[in-house]
Specification:
Distance between the termini: 23 Å
Pfam families: Thymidylate_kin
GO molecular function, one term: ATP binding
Bound molecules: ligand Z5A, magnesium ion
Radius of gyration: 16 Å
Helix content: 40-55%
InterPro entries: P-loop_NTPase, Thymidylate_kin-like_dom, Thymidylate_kin_CS, Thymidylate_kinase
Strand order of the largest sheet: 2-3-1-4-5
Strand content: 5-15%
Number of helices: 8
Organism: Mycena chlorophos
Enzyme class: transferase
Largest sheet: 5 strands, parallel
Length: 208
């Protein structure tokens, strides 16, 4: 069996990073080899340019920053694929769906946004964390970075809906992330335990 590729997507402050870490602990204690990825990965040279833009320390054309986010995924795509082939399950905090949803919410054409991510390793399961902007606003750290504005977040939420609707049932699931940490974690585990250790064959390609 190859590893399972699980992506956690969702709105700002929906608790993705919190839940990715709980999921890692639960997978490890069930004996599943697991590795976490997070996009943007701010540690690479490309990631540092993204970080500077998100913290409003630099300005970039909307298309240029979109392509940097994509390049940040491509620079890690081979590692992701290799680990999956070696039997390691991957849990990824944001992926290409954030890339498309945020750039399209700023006004770029959706198909233009999708095109440079086409061909990346495709997740076996994407869990979308849905939360109302009102609940997100009550959580720590909201409003510190460039995209943390309520109007933009509303458009992003609609675009995630459009992207999720394209998936066959079971490959994209929505979780109500406005509940307690424990309730969200239980729900995530319910979905993950249905697929983990049960996928085989070559890693699929996204949007191809
Ligand atoms: N972006 C893009 O434009 N294009 C791309 O291709 C990609 C990303 C990949 C930075 O992302 C921005 O980049 C993001 C999208 C854009 N912009 N926005 N908005 P990031 O992933 O680096 O962002 P972040 O700083 O990690 O924030 P986040 O991901 O939005 O937060 P989170 O991971 O979903 O939440 P959290 O850190 O786990 O929790 C937030 C707080 O809530 C924290 O204080 C927790 O303790 C608390 N929390 C968590 N769960 C709960 C529950 N259940 N109840 C109450 N409180 C909770
Ligand atoms: Mg996060």
């Amino acid at each position: 069996m190859r590893g399972t590729f699980i992506v956690i997507e969702g709105l700002d402050r929906s608790g993705k990073t919190t839940q990715v870490s709980t999921l890692q602990t639960w997978l490890e204690s069930s004996g599943t080899p697991v590795k976490l990825f997070k996009f943007p990965d701010r540690t690479t040279a490309i990631g540092q340019m993204i970080d500077s833009y998100l913290r409003s320390q630099s300005e970039l054309d909307d298309r240029a920053i979109h392509l940097l986010f994509t390049a940040n995924r491509w620079e890690l795509a081979t590692s992701i694929e290799r680990l999956l082939e070696q039997g390691t399950t991957i849990v990824c905090d944001r992926y290409a769906f954030s890339g498309v949803a945020f750039s399209a919410a700023k006004g770029l054409p959706l198909e233009w946004c999708r095109s440079p991510d086409a061909g990346l390793p495709a997740p076996d399961l994407t869990i979308f964390f849905d939360i109302s902007p009102e609940t997100a606003r009550e959580r720590g750290g909201y409003g510190e970075e460039r995209y943390e504005k309520e109007e933009l977040q509303k458009r992003v939420r609609g675009l995630f809906g459009v992207l999720g609707a394209e998936f066959e049932s079971g490959k994209w699931v929505t979780v109500d992330a406005g509940r307690s940490r424990e309730e969200v974690a239980e729900d995530v585990w319910r979905h993950v335990s249905k697929v983990v250790g049960k996928v085989d064959g070559p890693v699929a390609r996204l949007w191809i």
